[in-house]
Design a protein that fits this description.
Strand content: 15-25%
Number of domains: 3
Helix content: 40-55%
Largest sheet: 5 strands, antiparallel
Distance between the termini: 51 Å
Number of helices: 9
Radius of gyration: 53 Å
CATH class of the largest domain: Alpha Beta
Shape: rod-shaped
Length: 456
Amino acid sequence: MSSIRRRTLTLIIGLLLAGLAVLSTFNVHDSNHEIAEVYDAQLAQNARLLQGVMRMPLANKEHAELYRAFNSALGEAVPPGEGHPYERKIAFQVWDPAGDVLVHTASAPSFSTAPTQPGFSDVVDLNNRHWRAFLLQDPQNGMRIWVGERDDVRADLVGRIVRHTLWPNVVGSLLLAAMIWLAIGWGLKPLANMAETLRARHSGSLEPLQLAPLPSELEPMQAALNRMLAQIQEVLGRERRFIADAAHEMRTPLAVLRVHAQNLLEAGTEQERRESLEFLISGVDRTSRLVNQLLTMARLEPKSNPPPLQRIDLSETVRNSLVQLTPWLLSRHLELVFDVEDSPYHVFADPASIDIALNNLITNAANVSPKNGTITVRLSRADGFCHLSVEDLGPGINEADRERLFERFYSRGTAQGAGLGLTIVSTISTLLKGRIELVNRTAGGLRATLSIPAAE
């Protein structure tokens, strides 16, 4: 796309030239009309002046002398440098009642028949020259007075007026275009300064722009750029935290895996190799869970692109998740109980987020539950919230550790945990505008409750 200055100047100059063309057209039309009116008036006036002279009360002999004097004077050659070049383009003739020419100029045209129609007319002489003429009839003396002017006189005058008017307009338009170019450049100077400032910034600089003074039209652009820079900084921060967390947490599992692999190579008996292999498989499983948890945390990170929320039936979503978890719990010799009250459980949530939260709560409960224990999932509704609870028969939590349990990578000492489960659940509760609570049960064990606002 072309520059703003070029686009604006093209539009302005185009409109200016179009307006100039329209005005020039009107000027030519008006000039033709006004010049025609003035010259027509002069023709009529000259005819009436000549009529006054021809009506002078003279004897017949004196009239003849007057006609000869007229013809002699009008037929004389004009010396070079004197007179006007238009003189021979203006003519008049006078006819008597018999049709004989009494007076005429040397430049008067020749007609096959004398004109008889009074008033203004456009005629063509025998030499194919066009004339604008006025014929005045004198009923007192029976004379016809004809005054004419060649059309090229008027055309030449109109051409001169147009040239004298158009050229100043053209030159003025060019000067105006140059001034508009400079004015637009001056008006766009703040935008050019902003662009120059952006080009001069370091490629890794994400500090907000602070340009002053700044026109009001550019303030929204600066605000939008600052928001974008803040978002980029937030994204880069999340990526750095993810990389740092992954590097920190993967270092130990990888080192442990290497130790187990080394022990497998150095095992002297089948029993030692089997134990080393079991340790290796267990370490791979833990590392896999850690990677999955890290990826889940990255996807649910606040201010990232959260999953779209929709109206769902929470009881149906929980039931489907438990169906998937039941075989795994049975393989660990644990019993699963689902207790749901009779009530509607519609919430605005993402089914995948509910599934992730429930998986983490049940996994935490399974890690601390004794063999042949029971894990109870309850679903109830109260105070405008749908409460999803997971109860286990484990040792519970220390009150001093309650807040730290939601920190990243903090674990209660279980070998299977990565310390991200409750952090993920807390993140999901924030996205759903809910809350997560941990309460020690009176009968023993822990109750973790995820509360989500109910959809009316």
